[in-house]
Amino acid sequence: MKENLYLAIDQGGQSSRVGVYTESGQLICQFSAACATQHYQPDDSVYPYIEQDGNEILHGIRQCLDKVCEQLGEAAYAIKAASFAGQGSSLLCWDAKTGEPLTPVLSWQDIRGEPYLQHIALTHQQVQSMSGLRVSPHYGASKIRWCLDNYEPVKQALNENSLSVGPIVSFIFWHLLDKKNLVDPGHAQRTLLWNLHRNEWDERLLELFKIPKAVLPECRFHNSYFGNLKVGSHSIPFHASARDQGASLFASGIPDGSTCYVNMGTGAFIQRVSHMLHAPEGLLVSPLWIPQNNCSEQERANASPVCYLNELADKPLYAWEATVNGAASALPYIQAQTGLEVTPNEIELALQLNPEQDIYFLNSIGGLSAPYWRTDLHAQFAAGLAPQEKILAWIESVIFQIVVNIELMKKAGEIRHIRISGGFSKSNQVCQRLADISGLSVCRSDNADATLQGAACMATGLSTQWQPRFQTEIFSPATNTRLNYRFLSWQNAMEQWLIL
Predict the structure, then answer these.
(1) Whole-angstrom Cα distance, residue 339 to residue 333?
(2) In Å, how far are 52, 199, 369, 412, 415 from 98, measured between CA atoms?
(3) Are residues 104 and 55 in contact, defined by beta-carbon separation less than 8 angstroms?
(4) Model-level pTM?
(5) Is residue 286 part of a domain?
(6) Which of 40, 54, 82, 192 fits 139 for a cystine, CB–CB 3.0-4.6 Å?
């Protein structure tokens, strides 16, 4: 009998990717299609518009699926289930009857809806108690409100009861599956309209943003049956969907509760798995895996993709989360401040420095995020820094803020090590500094496909057979007196800065 195969779709900011894996996690084939992001600023807006083309994304995914069909031939019939991972806060509006986009895809980076948040009569704490998130224009609610108020085709479709609104996953499902507006809990939460405790759209939040519930997707469990995906003449049941950052934690199977997961890219993203919905002040909570587990004994005996023999897969999993905005997104600012082209080589040269004096950067690029959550502070360096010292201070500011958040995450229990990924993780110096200042070993793997791989693992039903192989490097903590001194100087400067 042929080995079962599983298909995963990863919709990222720069490309769409489709991969096929065995149940043990071996990659059979993978294809990608680029998708462009447009940045522009209308004359009447103080905010840049950051958009993608929904039809272009859809076309790219279809191209990848065609290539899978061509590559596998008859072996495509061995694909038993499919899954999706995507950008949680990117969304669009489309015609519920024809599927035609009525708006561009508003990227998760797009914050044009921020003025609406000034009139929301709820505090960050109140919103977090319902949704697990803080009030932010990066999330979907203010974007949806902006579309309802500013796009004439959206207004018309709403009046004609033919409007659908949802994250990019919902638009893709509508076209590739059964023309229904569906979503999973992870993507639903990122609209800022989802009640994390009741697992349903929150009537109070909907009323505050004046968003009709009827236009939003039907939310199903992470491991639900979402419909059938056609690959050639083969019909594949779609059995898993998740937000990209959440899916990445499942690349090696069910994530380890004693590990802190750090992705250092455009921003730095820190996650720790927890069964608890309540996180320490300053951290967010997101649904990682909310399963349906009402399977019959016969279904369990047959081990269908939606019913699992792995008992751990039946339990809800949440992530305590934190973000550090000013990682790679701060590059334009750092280049302007230093007069240098800040290349990876320039960063490595800066990281070879280990000065004794106060060298710090108070990093509010993109807003000072977890656990501080301030948007009113202007970034500043310690006085008198040379250009390469500024680069060092910038990189270390990201590492220091990561460590502050990791300390908060220890309230869920002991953390034994950090697993790091993303562009900055390629630097041995970055990994070693993170180990030294946190006192934890830092593990770096050669896996560049964690999100796609994690989505495929979800398609298997978190199978116990899922055991992908990749090389891992370990950075053990060492004593670094000068680094510890700079961390203390940064903390002291932060304390003074935050009381301004």
Answers:
(1) 10
(2) 20, 29, 40, 47, 50
(3) no
(4) 0.88
(5) no
(6) 192
Instruction: Return the percent helix, strand and coil in the chain, to nearest 5.
Output: 35, 25, 40
Helices (H), 103-214: 114-117, 124-131, 140-150, 152-159, 168-176, 185-189, 203-209
HEC-encoded secondary structure of 165-187: EEEHHHHHHHHHCCCCCEECHHH
> Could you say which of 196, 225, 251 is where a domain stops?
251
CA atoms within 13 A on the CB side of 346: 15
Co-location of 239 and 356 in the same domain:
no
Give 228-244 pLDDT, tens digit per residue: 999 988 999 999 999 99
The last residue of one of the domains, among 234, 251, 268, is 251
Cα–Cα dist 382/489, whole Å: 10
**CATH assignment of the domain containing 419:** 3.30.420.40
Q: Distance (Å, rounded) from C-alpha 130 to C-alpha 336?
A: 41
Q: Are residues 335 and 246 in the same domain?
A: no
Q: Does some domain include residue 70? A: yes
For residue 312, is it within any domain? no
**Exposed, middle or buried: residue 339 (CB in 10 Å: 0-12, 13-18, 19+)?**
exposed
pLDDT of residue 329: 87
Tell me the residue range of the domain where 400 lies. 324-446+470-498
Task: Say whether both 477 and 372 belong to one domain.
Answer: yes
Spatial distance between the Cα atoms of 215 and 174, rounded to a whole number of angstroms? 13
Is the domain of 16 the same as that of 141? yes
Two tokens at 197? Answer: 């405790």
Give the DSSP letter of residue 421: E
How many Å from the N-terminal Cα to the C-terminal Cα in the chain? Answer: 68
Pair (247, 333) in one structural domain: no
Q: Report the residue count for the chain.
A: 500
Q: Say yes or no: 20 and 150 in one domain.
A: yes
Residue 197 lies in a domain: yes
Neighbouring C-alpha atoms within 13 Å toward the C-beta of 287: 31
- Burial of residue 277 (CB within 10 Å: 0-12, 13-18, 19+) is middle
Whether residues 237 and 353 fall in one domain: no
pLDDT at site 312: 59
Contact between 251 and 468 (Cβ < 8 Å): yes
Q: What integer pLDDT is reported at residue 242 of this predicted model? A: 97
35 vs 18: CA distance, rounded Å: 14
**Residue 319 burial (C-beta neighbours within 10 Å; 0-12, 13-18, 19+):** buried
| Pair 454, 420: CB distance under 8 Å | no
pLDDT tens-digit profile of 77-93?
999 999 999 998 999 99
> Residue 172: what are its φ and ψ, rounded to 5°?
-65, -45
Q: For residue 215, give the nearest of 184, 170, 150 by alpha carbon.
A: 170
Domains contained in the chain, number: 2
232 and 95 belong to one structural domain = yes
The parts of the chain modelled with pLDDT lower than 70 are 1, 293-313
